[in-house]
Design brief:
Chain lengths: 429, 153
């Protein structure tokens, strides 16, 4: 019986640092480990003792790709603890800047990092050589997301205009409305990309996932709603820890998220889409149908299509919000220090990002917990890898390695957020 | 001669100042800014550089390298002449970095007219603020060199 080992020592095109080890004994998959070795960052620990109002700016630094997710989940948590209610205008402006983050993050991944997998290319440089118009479209789309973030947040990476209670300064009406024409172009461009990418040759793989996301009766959730699943879960955000656990495994510096019963679950675009398809705009639903997608997508390789439909949605939604924009006055709701506990949960591009904080009477942080999406997806990524390896044992090591990397990239894992990214090793014993 | 062509080169420092020697690019840019020169820090992924390439004809990029050379050693590359080796700059956790941006721009035919890349070999890329002494020395020499060159334009 032969032992076969597949190892990826530096998984390219994923944010962060990590590794994958697969051991096969004959045709049996003995072990699949998705290992993380970037040192833990101790954000939760060094938040203790800090003024609660500093939380959004500190947690923003967890990720350069999705800082808005950390800022907004932190703001929600601290505002709940301090008893602050923000105005609908502030909520709308937050949703608008969050759309910018979805546009830039999803576009970077789908066009520059994920599409090469389906075109048989090694990297974004090759895709620029073979498909220059595709890359030009992707770069223009990504720039739209950056422009939204710069206009509202002051800069595209680690915005400086966001704060507990709202914004330091409300952006000018004219500047926000000037975003509309490019956003309208972006919605059409994302639709065209979705339909073009629908022609890719997708691996035949499906799994009956537990999809966990925010759920909302009226809108496609970004910053609002309860936490729900396709298996009947429907809980308020503060009940997160009653339903999910984080556990430490020796091979990873990141905690891994599971349901209370120990099962894996999936967060991110596929989950949002499955749980909230009816809240997508009619145009986005039409794009999905034309791309051959139903209201639930169980093929993880088609997550690239769902991500692009979410780009279309984010462009449409941002354009709607920008057209209706009225500068919030005041730009933020002032908060007084007090003891309290609060919870926040928003939809980062990669899935739900849950925060909880406990404050002392001076408004200092006594306890912080931050659960990034990639930590929650890790057990499901391992389960997907085990399934994909078992289904593709006849592939040569090189091709199997490629398929494993592709499987991981389906999740757009942000390993730096969950303190982690990737080396791949497959042992065939 | 158009206003755009008269512009002095824009110096762009790339890197993360919270990862020790990875902050050498931002250090150079900020030091040049203090002398009143047009310099900026670029953070985040490399696609943002492509936007700068559209707006400037003459750009100097300064970044840390991790090529295995002696820490503090300086390489200068005329990006217009030959492709960059991605491995030289691949210390980042983000895989669309400087080399990817430059080579994508080359493939799309939108490289600036003049694009020089200065790489300073780092030693310590761990968490923290500050440059290793030999890296800071090279960075200081580069700042002086760039200041003199631009003063003479």
């Amino acid at each position: 019986m032969t032992e076969r080992i597949i190892q990826v020592d530096a998984l390219a095109r994923v944010e962060g640092e990590g590794a994958l080890y697969v051991r096969l004994r004959g045709r049996e998959v003995e072990k699949v480990e998705f290992r993380i070795f970037e040192p833990p960052r101790f954000f939760e620990a060094f938040l203790r003792g800090r003024d609660a109002l500093e939380t959004p700016d500190i947690t923003s630094r967890i990720c350069g790709i999705c800082p808005i997710a950390y800022i907004m989940s932190a703001c929600q948590g601290i505002e709940m603890a301090l008893g602050v209610d923000v105005s609908p205008e502030i909520d709308a402006l937050r949703r608008l800047i969050y759309c910018g983050e979805w546009i830039q993050s999803h576009t970077l991944h789908a066009v520059m990092l994920h599409a090469p997998d389906f075109l048989g290319l090694d990297d974004a440089i090759q895709i620029a050589q073979s498909h220059p118009d595709l890359v030009r479209t992707g770069l223009r789309l990504k720039k739209i997301g950056n422009s939204v973030m710069e206009c509202i947040g002051g800069r595209a990476v680690h915005p400086v205009n966001t704060r507990v209670g709202g914004f330091y300064r409300a952006p000018d009406r004219a500047a926000v409305r000037a975003l509309v024409p490019e956003l309208e172009w972006g919605a059409k461009a994302a639709r065209d990309l979705t339909l073009a990418f629908a022609e890719f040759d997708y691996p035949d793989d499906e799994f009956d996932y537990t999809f966990v996301s925010l759920i909302h009766p009226d809108v496609y959730p970004i910053l609002e709603g309860r936490i729900g699943s396709n298996r009947g879960l429907d809980i308020a955000v503060p009940d997160f820890n009653d339903n999910f656990v984080e556990e430490h495994v020796a091979r990873s510096t990141a905690l891994q998220g599971r349901m209370r019963d120990g099962s894996a679950y999936l967060v991110g675009p596929l989950a949002r889409y499955a749980n909230n398809f009816d809240r997508l705009s009619p145009d986005c639903q039409a794009t999905a149908r034309e791309a051959g997608l139903g209201p639930v997508v169980r093929n993880p390789f088609k997550s690239i299509l769902v991500r692009l439909i979410e780009v279309q949605y984010a462009c449409e939604e941002a354009a709607r919000l920008a057209r209706a924009y009225e500068p919030p006055d005041p730009a933020f709701v002032a908060a007084s220090p007090r003891a309290g506990e609060g919870h926040g949960c928003t939809e980062a591009p990669r899935g739900i990002c849950y925060h909880t904080y406990r404050l002392d009477a001076e408004g200092r942080i006594e306890h912080a917990q931050i659960v990034p999406p990639t930590s929650q997806n890790q057990p499901q990524i391992e389960a997907d890898l085990a399934r994909v390896v078992a289904d593709n044992l006849d592939l040569a090591d090189k091709d199997l390695k490629w398929r494993c990397e592709q499987t991981i990239r389906n999740y757009d894992p942000c390993i730096s957020c969950s303190t982690h990214f990737l080396k791949l090793q497959v042992d065939r014993v | 001669m158009s206003d755009r062509e008269k512009q002095l080169p824009l110096v762009v420092g790339i890197g993360n100042r919270f990862r020790m020697d990875d902050g050498v690019g931002p250090w150079v840019a900020e030091t040049l800014q203090q002398t009143g020169l047009d310099a900026r820090v670029h953070a985040g992924d490399g696609t943002g550089l492509l936007d700068l390439f559209e707006d400037y004809d003459d750009i100097i990029l300064v970044d840390a390298t991790r090529s295995g050379a002696e820490p503090g050693s300086l390489v200068s590359l005329d990006a217009g002449l030959a492709p960059l080796h991605a491995d030289m700059f691949h210390y980042s956790t983000h895989r669309f970095g400087l080399a990817e941006a430059v080579e994508t721009a080359r493939a799309l035919g939108c490289l600036p007219e003049r694009l020089w890349v200065y790489g300073i070999e780092g030693k310590d890329f761990g968490a923290g603020i500050g440059l290793t002494a030999c890296v800071e020395l090279t960075a200081s020499v580069l700042v002086t060199d760039l200041t003199l060159k631009r003063g003479g334009d």
